[in-house]
Amino acid sequence: MLNQLIATYTELMTSLATLPDEIALAQNDLTNAKAHKQDAERVLRNMDDDLIIAAGGWKAMGANDDERESCRMATFNVHVSPPPLTWKS
């Protein structure tokens, strides 16, 4: 019984010894992921601005938010969407 307790304690202490390094790696991965997310959000905002400009600005897109959103999505579909898939027989 005592040997089993000592073995379990040793195993736990060995596992705990690696935790600081694992936590540091996870924090580094999280920091990198946040940076990539911010970059992606910036690119998306720039694309959205470009689409609004391509449509002629907010005033040209409609009189209210619903019309503007509809026009923005239509402009997005024209400028960004990939061509439709075609099936080959």
Question: What is the compact description of this entry?
Answer:
By secondary structure, the chain is mostly helical.
Structural features:
89 residues, mainly alpha, 3 helices
Which segments are poorly predicted (pLDDT under 50) over 5 or more consecutive residues? none
Q: Which bin fits the share of residues in helices?
A: over 70%
Structural class: mainly alpha
Gross geometry: elongated
Q: How many distinct beta strands?
A: 0
What's the story with the biggest beta sheet? Answer: none
> How many H/I helical runs?
3
Radius of gyration: 27 Å
Summarize model confidence as the mean pLDDT. 87
Compressed to H and E, one letter per element, the order equals HHH
Percent strand: under 5%
- The CA-CA distance between the termini, in Å, is 70 Å
What does this structure look like?
This protein has 89 residues and is mainly α. The protein has a domain at 25-78. α1 crosses α3. It has helices at residues 2-54, 58-61, 65-79.
Any chance you could write out the topology, listing elements then pairs?
Elements: H1 2-54, H2 58-61, H3 65-79
Helix pairs in contact: 1-3
